[in-house]
Write a sequence for this structure.
């Protein structure tokens, strides 16, 4: 009778061992399931990160193109987006819809989604399918804007808005001679003088910080360069002589009062000039105060000799306006007027 009772009711220790085994099995199943989900969804998270990088790069690239070539950026935006989207995917494959370009708001939105090597829009999951989840996909979106910059720090010259000649669809203006003395003029390709020109700003070590909507104080260094400018100008000379291009962002003024140290300039925005030559110091025509400003130097470059300003106290800048974008993520408290120089930033 005792043996029968023992078989019908096992000892407590045996019952506990059986319960422990069952508990361990349940825990193992839960852990394996959690691990499976972690692996597959980790893969999806990595995919989304790649898509986000691709969308960011595509939006920035198209925004930069629209800032520089507003008349043609829309036609090549799809191919450009695909190029940058694929370049940021580990498998080199991403689906990016044609970007949405808003020329009024100056924004570009790029949307990227999963594209596998087999051409599918979803990824096959390895472990989560045992839980009934067979596939997964990821998406990402980015918006970039090109905004006219409203502040800057740089070389202490300001140029007149009357000289700005880039049209709404062109990438560059014409080569001009911006004349300082006498009379402050810009000289057009036909040799006609346009009221405008440029002026010196009061600076520290040849650097000046300005902001659109404010007034900057003028300066008159006479026949000498401001302190520190010779070093900067020599750098421009070295770059041009090495075959490079010197593109400099300058503040643009819409109105001025008086001149020299008694003058002031109303800054309205910023433009970029491709620098060709200059004479910024009167008197002796020597580098770096003067460079490529004679008739002989200009005709050797294929430019009209009328742009020369090598005599006496003449001072000038020989350059052309170009479209340009800057990497500064803070374009300023308020955007300046659009003179073709923009800050390219991600807005979301």
């Amino acid at each position: 009778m005792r043996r029968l009772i023992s078989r019908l009711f096992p000892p407590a220790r045996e019952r506990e061992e059986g319960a422990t085994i069952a508990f361990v099995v349940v825990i193992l199943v839960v852990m394996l399931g959690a691990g499976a989900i972690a692996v597959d969804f980790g893969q999806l998270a990595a995919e989304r990160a790649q898509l986000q990088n691709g969308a960011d790069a595509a939006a920035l690239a198209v925004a930069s193109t629209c800032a520089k070539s507003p008349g043609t950026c829309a036609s090549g935006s799809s191919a450009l987006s695909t190029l940058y989207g694929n370049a940021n995917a580990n498998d080199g494959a991403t689906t990016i819809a044609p970007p949405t370009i808003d020329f009024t708001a100056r924004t570009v939105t790029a949307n990227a989604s999963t594209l596998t090597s087999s051409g599918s829009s979803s990824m096959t999951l390895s472990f989560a399918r045992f839980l009934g989840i067979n596939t997964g996909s990821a998406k990402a979106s980015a918006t970039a804007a090109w905004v006219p910059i409203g502040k800057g720090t740089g070389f202490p010259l300001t140029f007149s808005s009357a000289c700005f000649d880039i049209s709404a669809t062109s990438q560059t203006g014409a080569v001009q001679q911006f004349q300082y003395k006498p009379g402050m003029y810009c000289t057009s390709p036909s040799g006609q003088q346009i009221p405008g020109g440029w002026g010196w700003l009061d600076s520290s070590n040849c650097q000046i910080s300005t902001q659109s909507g404010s007034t900057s104080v003028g300066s008159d260094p006479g026949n000498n360069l401001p302190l520190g400018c010779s070093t900067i100008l020599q750098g421009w000379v070295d770059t041009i002589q090495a075959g490079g291009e010197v593109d400099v962002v300058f503040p643009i003024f819409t109105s001025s009062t008086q001149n020299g140290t008694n003058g002031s300039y109303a800054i309205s925005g910023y433009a970029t000039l491709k620098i060709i030559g200059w004479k910024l110091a009167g008197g002796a025509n020597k580098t770096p105060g003067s460079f490529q400003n004679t008739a002989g130097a200009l005709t050797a470059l294929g430019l009209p000799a009328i742009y020369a300003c090598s005599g006496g106290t003449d001072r000038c800048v020989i350059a052309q306006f170009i479209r340009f974008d800057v990497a500064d993520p803070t374009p300023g408290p308020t955007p300046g007027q659009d003179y073709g120089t923009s800050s390219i930033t991600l807005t979301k």
In short: The first strand starts at residue 94 and ends at 96. The chain has a mean pLDDT of 81. The first helix runs from residue 2 to 8.
